[in-house]
Design a protein that fits this description.
Number of strands: 0
Strand content: under 5%
Distance between the termini: 61 Å
Length: 129
């Protein structure tokens, strides 16, 4: 359960940008958007592999180190990380890619803003004739 919570927290931080700890704000104003959703998924998968046999304290330390490393990345370092994560994505079997893409789509749907209410005051009411 704790490992799952840690990984969800890490995924959330990576997906939501993690503030200044991940990157300078992108053109849209959100930080940490230099990775595509697929590349972010590979980053999280790599983190899971690297931390699976660590104690909780080791994971905390590893996580702090990662944030420090990501914050200090130059544009060239970001490009290399992006290329590495893309290579990981490209190496996945198609079935696994489909699973990850479904998770990404489900997350995007959950985080999408709710639709604006219809401004028609007669909606759902029977029209009298």
């Amino acid at each position: 359960m704790r490992k799952s919570l840690f990984l969800k927290s890490l995924m959330t931080i990576v997906l939501l940008g993690g503030g200044a700890a991940l990157a300078q704000p992108a053109a849209g104003g959100r930080a940490g958007t230099f990775l595509t959703p697929e590349q972010r998924a590979m980053f999280v998968e790599q983190a899971r592999e690297q931390t699976q046999n660590m104690t909780a304290e080791q994971r905390r330390s590893w996580r702090r180190d990662q944030f420090t490393r990501l914050a200090a990345m130059s544009d060239a370092d970001k490009a290399k990380l992006k290329a590495d994560m893309q290579a990981r994505w490209d190496a996945l079997p198609q079935a696994r890619k489909d699973e990850v893409e479904q998770r990404i789509a489900a997350r995007a749907q959950r985080s999408a803003p709710p639709p604006a209410p219809d401004m028609n005051p007669n909606q759902g009411q029977a029209v009298a004739q």
